[in-house]
Design brief:
Shape: globular
Largest sheet: 5 strands, mixed
Distance between the termini: 35 Å
Helix content: 25-40%
Number of strands: 16
Length: 438
């Protein structure tokens, strides 16, 4: 068990020792601990940047060494090869790792989610203009109407003998893959038979679209907006349309490192909790945008990042703006809690699309991927409202769910197909989809 104490921490020189942590508790003076963290240049790695740049990690006796990577497979491999201690990670990656899926299936887990939101589905401008011509879209349509319009174009292209459309996701075991497929299927499009799906790393998606090698992609901010502002893309759906509470990025943890460094892991969670709270405050968004805009991190314009933090998306090169409240959530609404029910939903999508079979053994492995017990143990008694349950019905449309002893509510958040997910009945949930592989 990772909770057992050992002396595996690696001390580095501590430049500014302190006795008070962000939670207000007295901390023991100790050497600063180096934690190596890999990340992909996306806005949802903001909590890691704020933890290091704003001093939350240092106040807990930690120095975060943030290392930029270009692909999720590199993140997976470098965590497996012990080159990273922790990582900015796609929410399905710990689930896939526990199930032994993919190459180098090194088991990892997450005790802390890095927030929600930020994903969008972007189609090539040429394809979207074809949808407008065929169906008569005026640009104000909702996500499901856009999916239905795309279905009409796919049918027309097939009748004309044209090649299938090619859509990209960033990794096979990703929120982008499952959300893109969920949106396509909600519109009656079979992602495995009606179109072709491929993998493109996040920083390359806009360029791939500009080169006309893909016709659409799903990725986190800012790469959707970059495609729009290059004049080659059109945003047709966002995570908020598909499932607002869908888990996005998490802190992936090497179990070996966690077992050797239990105190450092606890301190890191405290630091990230404080950083997430800071990121959620609109008064801090100007400073946050400046930090993320650095070439060391995301490396795009501060103005673009600030607009995205506000939820103002340029969805069409013609300048049409869509405003989405809480487009990115870093702390509120229990955004950092690793829900077992969300890990189970991820598993349901893996089963739905034939990546893995459903069985009780696999289900028990899935529950090892998300660790609400660690989150709760570390943050109990802090100012953060900690959910009292590990699972809940997901995608409830009509009411809020009380999730903590303090009475904090999670807002209603329906799936685009209006079906709720009961984490205790995955087989019936999967069999209820008209389009599926199993």
């Amino acid at each position: 068990m990772w909770e057992s104490h050992s002396s595996g921490d690696h001390p580095v020189t501590q430049t500014e020792p302190t006795d008070v942590t962000p939670t207000g508790k007295t901390a023991r003076r100790s050497p600063e601990r180096l934690v190596r963290a890999g990340f992909i240049p996306l806005l949802d790695m903001a909590v890691l940047v704020a933890a290091e740049e704003q001093g939350f990690a240092r106040r807990e006796g930690i120095r975060l060494q943030l290392v930029k990577e270009v692909s999720w497979s590199n993140i997976r491999d470098r965590l497996a090869f012990r080159q990273f201690d922790v990582a900015h990670m796609l929410s399905p990656m710990p689930v896939a790792s526990q199930l032994g899926l993919g190459s180098h299936p090194y088991r990892c887990f997450t005790p802390f989610a890095l927030g929600r939101g930020g994903n969008s589905i972007t189609l090539s401008l040429e394809l979207y203009r074809e949808m407008q011509a065929v169906v008569g879209l005026d640009g104000s349509e909702h996500a499901l109407a856009n999916a239905l319009a795309l279905k009409s174009v796919i049918k027309l292209r097939k009748n004309q003998g044209r090649k299938p459309l090619v859509f990209a996701v960033t990794y096979p075991f990703s929120s982008h893959n499952y959300e893109f497929r969920f949106w396509l299927a909600a519109g009656g499009i079979d992602p495995d038979n009606d179109v072709m799906m491929t993998v493109v790393p996040p920083p390359l998606t806009a360029d791939a679209m500009a080169a006309q090698t893909i016709d659409g992609f799903c990725v986190n901010a800012p790469w959707n907006i970059i495609a729009v502002e290059k004049g080659v893309g059109r945003i047709v759906a966002t995570k908020a349309d598909i499932w607002p509470s869908a888990p996005e990025k998490v802190l992936g943890i090497s179990p070996d490192w966690a077992e050797k460094n239990p105190e450092t892991l606890s301190r890191l969670i405290v630091a990230l909790d404080a950083a997430a709270r800071w990121c959620d405050d609109p008064d801090n968004h100007g400073h946050l945008a400046e930090m993320l805009g650095s070439p060391a991190y995301v490396g795009v314009s501060t103005d673009m990042i600030l607009r995205l933090l506000k939820g103002d998306l340029t969805v069409d090169p013609c300048g049409r703006i869509r405003s989405i409240e809480k487009y990115l959530i870093f702390h509120g609404q229990a955004a950092n809690f690793p829900w077992i029910s969300q890990a189970r939903w991820i598993y349901s999508q893996m089963v739905r699309w034939g990546q893995v079979a459903y069985d009780d053994v696999s289900l028990s492995e899935v529950e090892g991927a998300y660790r609400p017990d660690i989150y709760r143990r570390v943050l109990a008694g802090s100012t953060t409202a900690v959910p009292a349950m590990d699972s809940k019905i997901e995608g409830v449309a009509s009411s809020s769910t009380v999730v903590s002893a303090a009475g904090e509510n999670i807002a209603a958040d329906a799936f685009i197909d209006r079906r709720a997910f009961d984490p205790g009945n995955i087989p019936d949930y999967v069999s209820g989809f008209g389009i599926r592989r199993t």
